[in-house]
Structures are given as C-alpha cells and as structure tokens.
Amino acid sequence: MKYAIFRRHGRPEEVLEVVEAPDPRPGPGEVRVRNRVMTINPADLLTVEGRYGAEPVALPATPGVGAYGIVDAVGDGVTRLAPGDAVLPAGQGLWADTVVLDARMAPRAPEGADPEQAALMRANPGTARLLLTTIADLAPGDWIVQNAANSNVGRMVIRFAREMGVRTVNIVRREDVRAALMADGADAVIVDGGDTDLASAVAGVAGAPPRLALDAVGGGATAELAAAVGAHGRVVVYGLLSGEDSRVGARDLVFRDVRVQGFWLAEWYRTASPEAMRDLHGFLARKLAEGVIHTDVEARYPLDRLRDAVAHAARGGRAGKILLTGESACATST
Fold this sequence. Notes:
By secondary structure, the chain is α/β, with parallel strands linked by helices. It folds into 2 domains: 2-120 and 295-332, Quinone Oxidoreductase, Chain A, domain 1; 124-266, 3-Layer(aba) Sandwich (Rossmann fold), CATH 3.40.50.720. The chain is built from 12 helices and 14 strands. Helix 12 (306-313) links the parallel strand 13 and strand 14. Helix 4 packs across helix 5 and helix 7 (198-206) runs parallel beside helix 8. The two termini are 21 Å apart. It catalyses: a 2,3-saturated acyl-[ACP] + NADP(+) = a (2E)-enoyl-[ACP] + NADPH + H(+).
C-alpha cells in the first residue's frame, strides 16, 4: 500500500511525502478498503500546516477525511459488508490507497453513484445542510448572508437554501463567479474588492439586515459579517480561509447582542445521534441522486503526485476541486 504522511508541520507541498508499507489485514469487525478517490479540502491543508483543530495533530500523521473505495477484505464478524461493496470511509487518515477501518466507519456509497461525486458528498454538502438546519429556525422568505460563496460549501448553501425558500446574499471576491452562483439559485451576489461597505450593501439587497451569517474566512471577515446581521443576529464561523483568528467589534458583540459561534463537522459527528446521522446521510444521498449535489472537479492526480496535487489545491482562482486517485483509477488522472 501507499499512503501520505507528514512528520512536521509546514507547507503541504514541502512536508508531505508518499511512503509504502505492506498491505494491512483487517481484524475482527474491520474491513479493508481500496480507495479509488480521495478528496482534498482546505481543512486538510490547514491540518498539515498545524493551523486546524482544537490542537495540532500528533505527528507523524496522514491527512484526509473524504474518500470513495471498494471493500476487498473483511474481518471476522463482519456481515454487513462484503468484498466488492462500494463504501465512503469515514474518519481521518484517508490519503492512502488502502485503509483498514471499523466496518461501522464504512457506510455504503449510494447505489450507482459516481465515485468522485460520492467521495465529495459528505463533508462540504453535509456542512452546508447542517448550517442551514441546526443553527437558526429559518423560514421561507428569510435572508442569510455568507462569504466565500463560490466555495463548495457556499454553493451547496445556495442550492439547499433555494429549495427551502431561504434567500441568500453571497459575498465573493471575483466577478467571474457571479453567473455560476446565480445559476445555483443565489438571490444576490456582492463582489467585494476590499473597500465595500458590506453592512450597507447586504441590507440594500435584502431589504433589512439578515438574522444569520455564515463565515468561512475568519479574521476581519467575521467582524464584517457581525456588522451586517441585525441586532440579536448570529454569525457562524465554520472555516479559517484567512488563517487568522476571528475578530468582532464591541459595538456588535456588546450593544447589538450579535452572537458568534463556531461549527465543525467533525464535532457534530462526534456528538450526533445515529438517527441524526442517518437523516443527514439520507438527505445527502437523495440530493446526489437528484443532481442537486454536484461538485465541479478541476483536476485529478495519482497519489504519487501528492505534492503537485496539494500545490494545485492551494492556488486561488480554481474552477473546481482537486482529487487524489488510487492506483486503480490512475488511468483517468491528470
């Protein structure tokens, strides 16, 4: 087997390496999965840099939290899965062409699903769904505002909100993404070159300050969103694209009672009930089948070209996700 590893924190394209090891054997209750597709998310890159999570991960470590693979061996006591089953491995350390994990952490992939889209189904679309349904009691006609709206989470927020009847103000930095967001169902797109009075701009298109803001950026962007929501509104920080700690003005925090909270999908999974997880996965599978969940892919790299892949993923101005492929899928790779 081959897997990615980093022994120190730093720039992903400098500290990541691919190493080989004998194929692991599944123990009782475990399955072995040959990963066909592995996803690269901003959180993966920040983890390698040591800037993500409550604490930096223990080293050495293997990144990766999203994948699609095929079961090729099962341990004693496993009856739910069999060799040949397509699964979506859950957990961390998934940038590997072969993984062994508890059978409970290998939910079946939706039947007939495209492997790439299935691998991308859980993290970003799941975050979008939960941001819209677990934070505030949104009703049809309500407005929300989000930054980094052309990210994968942002585009899923737009699509899911449209189906809920919730209207979206979407802040981006590039004019060339406006058309795609409007096609997704965005109600308004604000292109912010850094000198926009966002509070006035958001209120202008929404008619009044929204109750909820979704922040993927952190740093000063949190303060801008806090100023843009109404009194007693809420800002949910779910990403750290700026690499900076979130800041909030005292006027909004103290005198307008704006609430700022975080959201981390891994923590939700840690505390969610089995019923809540089934509901989420059922929703995501339905939306994948309906074509509501569809993620653009810009390039695919075999695991051996890991450093090229993460360098590409870190570039600005991309038009889609960057994926890693296992050996069985390398024929279609970049």
